[in-house]
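I hope you will forgive my troubling you with a question about protein structure. You will find the record immediately after this paragraph.
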Amino acid sequence: MKINIRSLLIKKDLKYKERGKRISLYFLAPSVFGVLLFFVAPFFVVIYYSLIDNPINHELVGLENFGSVASNVAFRQAARNTLQFSGIAVPLAVILALLLAMLLNSRIPFRSQFRTFFLSPMMVPIASIVLIWQILFHYNGTVNEMLAVFGIGKIDWFKSIYGQIVIVILFLWKTLGYNMILFMAALSSIPKEILEVAVMESANPFQIFWYIKLRYLSATILFVTIMSLINSFKVFREIYLLTGDYPYDTVYMLQHYMNNMFTRLDYQKLSAAAIMMSLVMIAIIGIMFLTEKHFGRDVEG
């Protein structure tokens, strides 16, 4: 009798589990459908467009579009500017945010005020940010007026070789606060016992940072770097509002090229450029994952 009751309970439990799985699938179905419709399907459509001559004939041309895009002068200029911008802005966004987090993590006065100051850009709308930057870096703007005090001539910031410097400053102003908060949370999660033992063993601050803190921060550094890299590729929005479709050469980014291809209905080149940019990003992120795995393996162990 006891065995039969136990068997019945097991069957009942399995029945409830199966029912729970079915209900879960019902709830997940709309999300899965949405992902397939709006993310997976467009991904394959982009690949298809990159392999045809145009959306009307639908004739397969293989990798011809990729070669045409790679040899395009505008694309090369945009790719060079984008890589240069990301190569400067992303390391600065990570390193400066980490330094600020370590500074605010120490016992300094007015920590709350500093934290609020660096987080305030996240609450400012994009239109307001662009307006502020136009006032600051206009030919007759505030920055040039300040430089005139020191006898420096006026600079047309958005139409000169200094244009990318303005965009880097804008990018840092927007992202430092968010990155800093992530690093502060990671620093607070480092076991205090390990730090105390290191101090007792006469380790200096640099050794504590390099051999302990950096190892525990490796995952956060990877996440912050990836997010900063993605955001650096999305800086087109601010540049477009500041300079329009065809800005000065130094601030002409990949997004400008793809946006112009879209307005000209050149979907095949747009798709080829998007795939090439995606492959580069995947390669960079893969390298970062391998680096993080190397530095963080002893912490995980």
Observations:
- Residues 26 and 201 are 58 Å apart (CA to CA).
- The radius of gyration is 26 Å.
- The mean pLDDT is 83.
- Residues 2-50 form the longest helix (49 residues).
